[in-house]
Amino acid sequence: MNIITNFLDKNKYSRPGTKRSKTTKIAWHYVGNARSSAIANRNYFNNAPKHKTSASSHYIIGLNGEIIYCVPEGEIAYTTNSANSYSIGIEMCHPDSSGKFNTLTYNAAVELGVDLARRYKLNPLTDFIRHYDVTKKCCPKYWVDNKNAWEKFKKDVNSKLKGNTTQGSSTTRFKNGDYTGKKARVTADVLNVRYDRGTNYKVIAKLKKGDIVKLNYCLNEWISIEGYKGNKGLGYVHTDYLEIM
Ligand SMILES: [Zn+2]
């Protein structure tokens, strides 16, 4: 999952800084502006004080599957009207006016949905909602016009969630948290070590299959490793290509 943290500046229109006390729903949206990019939507939210429109979301998923994290989960975003206090809001970009999501955007939404459902202990089948379910607004348009596609999305997240948490699964999943003192072995033929968490950061070294790395801290499937000169004096690799020793 390629999450780019790029928080909005605090302002009363799109990031008031109000704390939220609970998360019981994940609310899904479409941006409505066909072909617009995730960063363009993020910047529109950030410019809210200029156009005086109260709008924002916690995440925006772009046309290339990139995910911009723009309001901290613990704060209110102005996404889903009366549901804002208890939901995390996600906007999704789309290539045309039908509002149908492309495969990259859809797959990223499934991954983000799995991650949020796991962390907040939610059931995708009952705890994922559309903007439409709160206000009857036609959003996300394709999932309002095609209820089966909405049901399929929830089922796709649910089956991936269950698949990833099955006991005795062959790979040990990395969880967010401290791994100092632990080591892992590289399972990919070649593994890029990057300057920070994400494929958008530059490659600062390459590892090969069987190499051993000293672990540091895992966040959203990216783990820092010791002995590199990236951000904070560490290197960063994706956990899909490591096995804990
Ligand atoms: Zn919406």
From TrEMBL:
This protein's UniProt keywords = Cell wall biogenesis/degradation, Hydrolase
Against InterPro entries, the record matches this protein to:
Amidase/PGRP_sf, Amidase_domain, NAMLAA_amidase_2, SH3-like_bac-type
List the EC numbers from the record: 3.5.1.28
**UniProt-recorded Gene Ontology molecular function terms:** N-acetylmuramoyl-L-alanine amidase activity
The EC class name is: hydrolase
Highest taxon, organism lineage: Bacteria
Give residue ranges for domain SH3b.
181-245
Biological processes per GO annotation = cell wall organization; peptidoglycan catabolic process; peptidoglycan turnover
Q: Which reaction does it catalyse?
A: Hydrolyzes the link between N-acetylmuramoyl residues and L-amino acid residues in certain cell-wall glycopeptides
Q: Which PANTHER family match?
A: N-ACETYLMURAMOYL-L-ALANINE AMIDASE AMID
Name this polypeptide is given: N-acetylmuramoyl-L-alanine amidase
Q: Which organism is it from?
A: Romboutsia hominis
